[in-house]
Design goal:
This protein has 265 residues and is α/β, with parallel strands linked by helices. The protein has a single domain, classed as Alpha-Beta Barrel (TIM Barrel), CATH 3.20.20. It contains seven helices and nine strands. Strands 3-1-2-4-5-6-7-8-9 form a nine-stranded mixed beta sheet. Bound molecules: S-adenosylmethionine, the ligand Nc1nc2[nH]cc(C(=O)O)c2c(=O)[nH]1, iron/sulfur cluster and magnesium ion (MG). The site of iron/sulfur cluster has 11 residues, from loops. It comes from Allorhizobium terrae.
Length: 265
């Protein structure tokens, strides 16, 4: 696992890797898939029409990641370096030229140079939400309309770099609507979410039950552990009420309830 450290040399490593990625891509953005319009299935924008731009590559490898096709290097040959114009042509085609929210996800979209795409879309009346684990901070977070920070709980097997998360918030500043969203599988994840949320009391907190997704290519049939998801969301609601944690919002992944873990929805 590659992890940005809290020490100052961690920032240098980010810069070095940034330069390497840029040299490799020639300023292009590594895209796994562009799809929609569909509804945003998670968090504060749930139910709202959106087009997804999913980048390829992640500095994490969560044990339960439901988007491994955009993370695991075995799928690298399905990722394409694309220029802003080419990405935009697809977004405009999918949205019929009608401005809407573009959701930037991945992998970790913070790895990619997305500032040009955001500026291009803003000029045309589109808005941008970005979903990241908060391990890599970018100056251009301040250009976003919505920033969803989704630090990873113990069940993911990843370790949170709190300094990097703080940096993300600092870079974002006051402009984007910024939120926390936690995946919860069990009691330890719940305790993590509660503690992390308490660190940032000014940020709205969303909790979503984890789904157990078979790794690709088995996911082509969108097999999903629906009973497990339902029992976890019931448990999560009970748990939040028990704690009188009334600042939290509990939501299932609507797209998973509707379509399982099908790609492109
Ligand atoms: C695939 S990730 C990509 C963006 C970024 N890497 C991140 O994790 O925030 C998008 C969202 O899906 C969530 N997610 C991934 N796997 C999940 C699972 N098995 N169950 C529930 N949510 C999951 C992540 O926590 C994140 O909020
Ligand atoms: N409909 C829909 N909503 C989503 N919210 C977050 C998603 C993601 O994988 O990043 C996602 C996704 O893949 N589809
Ligand atoms: S950080 Fe996001 S994309 Fe990366 S492995 Fe974890 S859930 Fe998947
Ligand atoms: Mg998903």
């Amino acid at each position: 696992m590659y992890r940005i450290t809290t020490e100052s040399h961690g920032l240098d490593r980010t810069a070095v890797r940034d330069r390497e990625t840029q040299k490799e891509l020639g300023g292009k953005i590594r895209i796994s898939e562009i799809f929609g319009p569909t509804i945003q299935g998670e968090g504060v924008l749930i139910g709202q029409p959106t087009v997804f731009v999913r980048t390829g590559g992640c500095d994490y490898r969560c044990s339960w990641c439901d988007s491994l096709h955009a993370v695991d290097s075995q799928f690298r040959d399905t990722w394409q370096p694309m220029a802003v114009d080419a990405i935009w042509a697809q977004v405009e085609h999918l949205s019929g030229g009608v401005p809407l929210m573009v959701s930037l996800s991945g992998g970790n979209p913070a790895i990619q140079p997305l500032d040009g795409l955001i500026a291009h879309g803003h000029q045309r009346g589109y808005r941008f939400a970005l979903e990241t684990q908060g391990s890599i901070a970018r100056d251009w977070f301040a250009e976003l309309d919505v920033l969803v920070l989704s630090p990873k709980p113990p069940s993911s097997g990843m370790e949170t770099d709190w300094k990097a998360l703080d940096d993300c918030l600092e870079k974002a500043g006051n402009k984007p609507q910024t939120l926390l969203k936690f995946v919860v599988f069990d009691e330890a994840d719940y305790a993590y979410a509660k503690a992390a949320s308490a660190r940032y009391p000014h940020l709205p907190t969303y909790l979503q039950p984890g789904n157990h997704t078979p790794p690709p290519p088995e996911d082509v049939d969108a097999v999903i552990d629906m009973d497990g998801i339902m029992s976890r969301v019931h448990w999560l609601v009970d748990r939040v009420m028990q704690d009188r944690w009334f600042a939290a919002t509990v939501l299932p992944q609507l797209h998973v309830l509707l379509w399982g873990n099908k790609r492109g929805v």
